[in-house]
Amino acid sequence: QVQLVESGGGLVQAGGSLRLSCAASGIIFSTFHMGWYRQAPGKQRELVAVVNSGGSTNYADSVKGRFTISRDNAKNMVYLQMNSLKAEDTAVYYCNAVWSLFGGTREYWGQGTQVTVSS
After folding, report:
1. Phi-psi bin for 10: left (phi > 0), alpha (psi -120 to 50), beta?
2. Does the first or last residue of the chain, that is N or C, have fewer Cβ atoms within 10 Å of its Cβ?
């Protein structure tokens, strides 16, 4: 059974920091591309950051320079360090795992963790 369990969300003032964690189980973690997405009320889910199985990262323009994604393959964990938080970062943040090889794709989502930034 595949599980992605997020933690670390909460309420923070603008300019503050939070670190989100995602614990993965039931997958060969090192072979999956891992990402963080977010969804604000009334908006579509959007990509925040990804780290592929090789360790390369990519970020949404809105978070570049403020957020850092990292992974620990030994612990089956992916993290999102969020600094200089803004009110517009308020959203539910979801952990995502994608495996794509030989024409096949598998994708899994966590249940989400709420991040609220007060201005």
Report:
1. left
2. N
- pLDDT tens-digit readout, 75-104: 999 999 999 999 999 999 999 999 988 888
Contact 22, 78 (CB under 8 A): yes
Residue type, 88: E
Contact 101, 110 (CB under 8 A): no
Distance CA(76)–CA(22), nearest Å, equals: 8
Question: CB within 8 A of 56, min separation 6: which ones?
Answer: none
If one counts every other C-beta atom within 10 angstroms of the C-beta of residue 24, the result is 22
118 has which bridge partners? 13
